[in-house]
Amino acid sequence: SDRLERERRKPNLCVMNVPESVSEEPRERGKDDLQVCITTLGMKKADIISTFRAGDTPSAEQGPRPLIIKMKDEKTANFYSMNGRGKKTTSGLYINRDLCKADRHAMFMVRQARRQNREQAS
To answer: How far are the Cα atoms of 1, 55, 57, 64 from residue 76, in angstroms, in the given order?
Structure first.
C-alpha cells in the first residue's frame, strides 16, 4: 500500500507556514490558497491542478495547516521543490514533496541517527 501511496503523491507538493485564510466560505479559502501559490510562491496557474489543506481546522494556539498542491505532473513538482530537496522561500514558506507516512518516518530516523552521530563525535 505504501507503493501505491507514493505513486499517488508524486505530483504533490507540501507547503508549510502558509497562513490560513480568514474567509468563512470554503470556496473562497481555496481561491486564497491558490492566490498565495501564484503570487508568493511564483507558480504558474497552468501548472496547478488543485490545492487543499491537510488536517483539521487548527485552534488559536496551533500553527497553520500544511497546504497540499497537486501539480500537473511529477516533473513540475520536482522543479518547484528543487528536485525533491526542498526549498525555503524568502517569505519563510517551506516547499517540499508530499511524502507518505512511511517515508516521513524513514527520513526522521535518518535525521535522528545523524544527530546522534554528531553528538558522539563531539
So the answer is: 25, 25, 29, 25
The model's pLDDT over 38-97, given as tens digits with 9 standing for 90+, comes to: 999 999 999 999 999 998 877 777 889 999 999 999 999 999 998 878 888 888 999 999
Q: Which residues pair with residue 16 across a beta bridge?
A: 94
Convert 68-86 into a string of H (helix), E (strand) and C (coil): EEEECCHHHHHHHCCCCCC
Element (H, E) at 61: none
CA distances from 18 to 1, 14, 28, 45, 89 (A): 30, 10, 15, 18, 11
Q: Which cell numbers in the block locate residue 61?
A: 494556539
pTM score, two decimals?
0.83
